[in-house]
């Protein structure tokens, strides 16, 4: 195991102190060498990271270093437990940025191990913008068998092309959300230009914050495996029986699609689309977890 010792700024760590008696906050001090730390009171956070080049931030401070195993040392300024928030960001592929956060409590002299390499339901994902070709977007709408009772939802809508195609194909209403302000603006503009502003609600924000899908009956995805796995429990819990999910390219772990089709685009290339339908069995499986 590669062990890298880093030293954190005690004053900074005290900012989120949770000692019963409120700790006085020492002035922020310069980085110290390990040798200068009071060894009896030195606390260690032994961190396992999801990638060698992951960026680790503790209580807002970027910790320099590399390797998947790192040790952060600090001397809590007072007795009592202190709260440390560890955030790791990494890019598992060229289009995805992941963020994972964990908060721990630590007292002077303690050593705590934190495994940040394990998937967590609170993980955050951001994928880059890359549009589905227009004719493939239409094929997604066809695969979902969109009808007049459907409310369609597109997390990470880009320019809203799939939702717009779904409304044109007869869906009742659409909800689009994009984390990128430029894409949310482009979606809004396109929806207005298409004269569909009264039927498509465009929002800016993180789709992983959207927990209420009670009105939704069709979900369109082109978001990558990591996002799909994080949104999967929300889909299982929130969507009614009979709701459909169509994903361009990316699957959902061990949830096998009901259908997978390959579509060729006028723009060139073959595109895989996957369809899942929410069943009573899926709902029960979730309830038993
Ligand atoms: C691969 S593009 C797909 C765009 C569109 N759905 C399509 O198929 O043409 C992914 C989009 O999702 C947005 N996005 C990425 N992470 C997001 C998140 N956590 N919440 C909401 N939108 C996100 C990006 O800004 C980008 O516009």
In short:
With 289 residues, the protein is α/β, with parallel strands linked by helices.
Mind explaining what this structure looks like?
With 289 residues, the chain is of the alpha/beta class. The protein is 20% helix and 32% strand. It has two domains: 5-120, Immunoglobulin-like (Sandwich); 128-287, Vaccinia Virus protein VP39 (Rossmann fold), CATH 3.40.50.150. It has helices spanning 10-13, 134-143, 161-168, 181-193, 225-238, 280-287; strands spanning 5-7, 43-48, 55-58, 61-63, 69-74, 82-93, 96-106, 111-115, 124-127, 151-155, 173-178, 200-204, 218-221, 244-248, 259-264, 270-277. The strands form three sheets. A seven-stranded mixed β-sheet has the order 12-11-10-13-14-16-15, with helices on one face. Helix 2 crosses helix 3. 33% of the residues are buried. The structure holds S-adenosylmethionine. The site of S-adenosylmethionine has 25 residues, from strand 9, strand 10, helix 3 and strand 11.
């Amino acid at each position: 195991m590669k062990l890298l010792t880093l030293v954190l700024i005690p004053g900074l760590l005290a900012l989120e102190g949770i000692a019963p008696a409120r700790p006085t906050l020492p002035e922020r001090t310069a980085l110290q060498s390990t040798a200068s730390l009071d060894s009896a009171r030195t606390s260690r956070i032994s961190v396992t990271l999801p990638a060698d080049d992951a960026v680790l931030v503790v209580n807002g401070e970027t910790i320099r270093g590399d390797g998947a195993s790192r040790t952060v040392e600090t001397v809590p300024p007072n007795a009592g437990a202190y709260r440390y928030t560890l955030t790791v960001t990494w890019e598992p592929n060229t289009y995805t940025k992941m963020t994972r956060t964990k908060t721990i409590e630590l007292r002077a002299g303690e050593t705590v191990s934190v495994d940040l390499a394990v998937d967590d339901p609170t993980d955050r994902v951001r994928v880059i913008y890359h549009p589905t070709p227009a004719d493939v977007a239409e094929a997604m709408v066809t695969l979902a068998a969109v009808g007049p009772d459907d409310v369609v939802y597109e997390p990470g809508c880009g320019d809203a092309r799939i939702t717009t195609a779904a409304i044109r194909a007869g869906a009742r209403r659409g909800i689009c959300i994009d984390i990128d302000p430029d894409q949310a603006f482009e979606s809004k503009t396109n929806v207005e230009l298409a004269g569909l502003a009264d039927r498509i609600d465009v929002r800016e924000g993180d789709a992983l914050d959207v927990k209420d899908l009670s009105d939704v009956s069709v979900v369109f995805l082109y978001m990558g495996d990591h996002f799909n796995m994080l949104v999967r429990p929300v889909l299982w819990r929130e969507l009614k029986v009979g709701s459909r999910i169509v994903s361009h390219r990316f699957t959902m772990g061990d949830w096998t699609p009901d259908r997978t089709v390959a579509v060729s685009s006028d723009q060139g290339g073959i595109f895989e689309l996957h369809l899942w339908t929410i069943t009573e069995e899926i709902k029960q499986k979730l309830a038993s977890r």
